[in-house]
Amino acid sequence: MIRAISRSVAAIFVAFILAMIFIVGVEGLTSILYPFPPGVDSSDIEVCKAHVAQLPTSAFLVASVGWGLATFSSAWAATRLGSGRHGAHGIGIGFALLAAAIMNMMMLPYPTWFWIANLVVLPAGIYVGSNLGRARPPIAQNAHA
Predict the structure, then answer these.
(1) What is the pLDDT of residues 90-102, one digit of tens each?
(2) Is residue 118 in some structural domain?
(3) Does any domain span residue 141?
(4) Rounded to an integer, what distance in angstroms lies between the CA atom of residue 72 and that of residue 7?
(5) How far is CA 49 from the centre of its chain?
């Protein structure tokens, strides 16, 4: 039992690290493609709100795809590595990422379509990732062999 719990915790941890790699990568890419103006304090929430409000659609598309890939890959990894390849591992990390995305979207002035896209893409990533991470049923042996 301790081994199963340890494996589940490790799977969630690895999946979280994988998600952070994707998210930091996406945020890094968007900061290169759409940088803050020189000399502004990017840690000021009002400056961030103003910056997000003027971003082009392509910036939001990159973010939505990246967040979706982060959710999918972490749900897959957590399920695949977790004890018994149970889908709850992927669902758990996926919903944690969905909650984080919602909190982020509540803080900044994202367009309505971005909300809708993420509220479709992220749960789809959770569903597909956790299902693909499960063990496959054994292939039936040919009765004529």
Answers:
(1) 999 999 999 999 9
(2) yes
(3) no
(4) 20
(5) 22
Measured CA angle at 64 (ends 61, 66), to 5 deg: 105
Token output for 52:
């997000």
Would the pLDDT of 143 be above 60?
no
Give yes or no for residue 145 having a pLDDT over 60: no
Q: Print the domain residue range for 29.
A: 2-133
The answer to whether residue 108 sits within a structural domain is yes
Instruction: Let me know if residue 139 belongs to a domain.
Output: no
* Structural domain count, the chain: 1
Burial class (CB in 10 A: 0-12, 13-18, 19+), 145: exposed
25 CA to centre of own chain: 12
Residue with tokens 């749960």: 123
* N residues, the chain: 145
* Phi-psi category of residue 83: left, alpha or beta, with phi > 0 → left and psi -120 to 50 → alpha: beta
Residue 88's identity, in one-letter code, is A
How many degrees, rounded to 5, is the angle at CA 66 between CA 63 and CA 70? 135
